[in-house]
Amino acid sequence: MVGLRKNPELVIDIADEQSVFTVDLESIRLAVVRILEEARIERAQISVALVDDPTIRELNRRYLEHDYATDVLSFVLESSVEHLDGQIVVSTETAQNEAVRYGWSADDELLLYVIHGALHLVGYDDATPEEQVKMREREKVVLGFFGLKPRWSEARTSDNIEPEERTS
After folding, report:
1. What is the DSSP annotation of 88-150?
2. CB of 112 within 8 A of CB of 121?
3. CATH code at position 154
4. For residues 59, 64, 68 and 73, what is the CA-based torsion angle, rounded to 10 degrees?
5. Shortest CA distance to 86 belongs to which of 19, 141, 17, 39?
6. Predicted confidence band of residue 160 (pLDDT cuts 50, 70, 90)
7. Residue 12, helix vs strand vs coil
8. What is the DSSP string of 20-87?
9. By CB atoms within 10 Å of each CB, which of 18, 30, 38, 91 scores lowest?
């Protein structure tokens, strides 16, 4: 990816707590930095946790009262004009399963989840059809920086479908 400046004020910590597949950690970091820079956030501390389905299910149950595994969770811990502190939790197990369904690599599917979570951190939402369109457009742009095109059906939504049909 070109155009990214080294900014020591944008700290991205990645905890790989899974054993499903080897993850391209640099792409994850670059995607989060890209989204932060495009949102004109100059200082941030973002943690990204790569977990399995049982772990993300427990977090989803504990914090959102949803008793199922999901693809991505994001939490804004602190947000101000000067600073963003947040967490993104993604399931590599879900990414691996969904990647087969969409015909691309588990790394690509996981990258989509990270992008989706990071967009939530900087203020994007997908609760309404209009917001979903804006979120998908941003996902598409950021994926494009990695030479990827999204594989979802435009008719699908990411957060308003049943767990067994979830996509990012």
Report:
1. EEEEHHHHHHHHHHHTS-HHHHHHHHHHHHHHHHTT---SSHHHHHHHHHHHHHHHHTTT---
2. no
3. 3.40.390.30
4. -60
5. 39
6. very low
7. strand
8. SS---HHHHHHHHHHHHHHTT--SEEEEEEEE-HHHHHHHHHHHH---S--SEEEEEEEE-SS-EEEE
9. 38
Count of CB atoms situated within 10 Å of the CB of 61:
13
> Six-digit token pair at 19?
């054993």
What would the pLDDT profile of 79-136 be if each residue is shown by its tens digit? 987 799 999 999 999 999 999 999 999 999 999 999 999 999 999 999 999 999 999 9
Q: Is residue 5 assigned to a domain?
A: no
- What letter does residue 9 receive in the DSSP assignment? T
151: domain range?
A: 10-165
In total, how many domains does the chain have?
A: 1
Our CA angle for 135, 122, 12, nearest 5°, is 115
Nearest-angstrom CA–CA distance, 116 and 74: 9
Residue 29, CA atoms < 13 Å, CB-side half-sphere? 16
The tokens describing 30, both together, are: 């670059």
The Cα 141–Cα 59 span in angstroms is 29
* Residue 98 lies inside a defined structural domain of this protein: yes
Decide if 3 is inside a domain: no
164 SS3 class: helix
Q: Is residue 116 part of a domain?
A: yes
| Confidence (pTM) | 0.86
